[in-house]
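Worked Example 4.2. Consider the chain below.
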Amino acid sequence: MKGPLPSYEKCFFCGPATGGLALGIEYREGSAFAEFTAQEKFQGYDGVLHGGIVTGVLDEVMWWTLFMETRVVAATWKIDVEFRRPIKCGNVYYASAELLCSNHGNYYMSAVIEDKAKKVAARAGGMFRKTKGFTMEEMVKHLNFRGVSEEVRSLFST
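Applying the procedure from the previous section yields the following structure tokens:
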């Protein structure tokens, strides 16, 4: 299965109308990924994407990878980010993630942001846990399925 994923309408990272990044996240071969341009309005130091934004992008692709691989609605429990090189505003980057393993309800993930030359700019490891009181039915109410295939859409049926 592959193709664009829905966006969570109020999400700063994937929501299309929040004034945030509006990442177009896609899924293919066990990984959620997004190609994005580091926008100047999200810089920290002059011309460099803010570390909080970098962390959020990594978290976002890990969450979507976990969901697509397991159908578990989870939340980030822990994230560890390594900033390898500056993510420069105006440049294009590629973020992707993978599910490493699960153990006793904990899901271990990794993610990376690379530049066009495939040099690693940032990487993260994360641990996620299934959320309590937040269901698939509740989540689906807030998803935007524009441009999402019927095959991917069917995964969100309750």
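The chain has three helices and nine strands. The chain has a mean pLDDT of 93. Compare this with Example 4.1 before moving on.
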